[in-house]
Amino acid sequence: MMESIRKYIAEFIGTAVLVIFGCGSAVAANAMLDLQGVVLPLSFSTLAIAIAFGLVIVAMAYSVGNVSGCHINPAVSLGMLVAGKMSVTDFVGYVIAQFLGGIAGAAVLMGILGGTELGLGANGYGEASALSAGVAQALAIEVVLTFVFVFTILGVTSKAQNSSVAGIVIGLTLTLVHILGIPFTGTSVNPARSLGPALFMGGDALSQVWVFIVAPLIGAAIAALVFRLLQPEDEKK
Question: In Å, what is the CA distance from 232 to each residue of 74, 82, 158, 227?
């Protein structure tokens, strides 16, 4: 029981830190797009946000990874469940901890910013999208991005000899998917990361958040099924 509780606490902390630093960096980078009349390139903002999310994953992977595996993402946990790498009980505990962590992280971020005037890094489509992506386009891009992210995680963590570099590979992959996804949706690939800010922002952010819960879960499930299909017979459970 205590071991499970330690895992859930680690997932809570990791997800909260992801939201605080990842979404916080998104708020800061977007604010700098027009700072004191100096307009910074949108590409700079996109790259800065992508790197921030990637670095958070690397940091958490090497701090709580040995406790919980550092999923800090319900989509990753679903992928692990479908791939046969975790129990249903742990899956439920992980997801609850992750969503609570995402909400806590958004609350801390709102406290730091003193309100929601600058936003909280919420995901969105339509007017909230730099490329004015529609709902179907947002769903599609999030499914594809999450597929790549979770498929990479399943692959790099499937071999014990990769343990020393797994955190770096996963962090770089999250950076990669953010570089493509930010102009479309702000990049979610993580329902907990999306729900926290949306709850505090309300409005369109909250009404659209279902896309960033459903699409990552679909992408993760597909990734896990494809991963199992491609596994050698002697490695399948």
Answer: 27, 17, 12, 10
d(CA 37, CA 221): 45
| Residue 237 reports pLDDT greater than 70 | no
* Backbone torsions φ then ψ of 83, nearest 5 degrees: -80, -5
CATH topology of domain 2-235: Glycerol uptake facilitator protein (1.20.1080)
| Mean pLDDT value across residues 86-92 | 97
Q: pTM for the full model?
A: 0.94
Question: Average model confidence (pLDDT) for the chain?
Answer: 93
For residue 51 the two structure tokens come to 């790197």
Query: CA-to-CA distance for 78 and 76, rounded, in angstroms?
Result: 5
Q: Where are the domains of the chain?
A: 2-235
Going from the C-alpha of 123 to that of each of 53, 111, 130, 133, 212, the distances in angstroms are 14, 19, 11, 12, 7
CA angle at residue 230 from 229 to 236, to 5 degrees?
70
Beta strand extents in 61-114 (DSSP E only): none
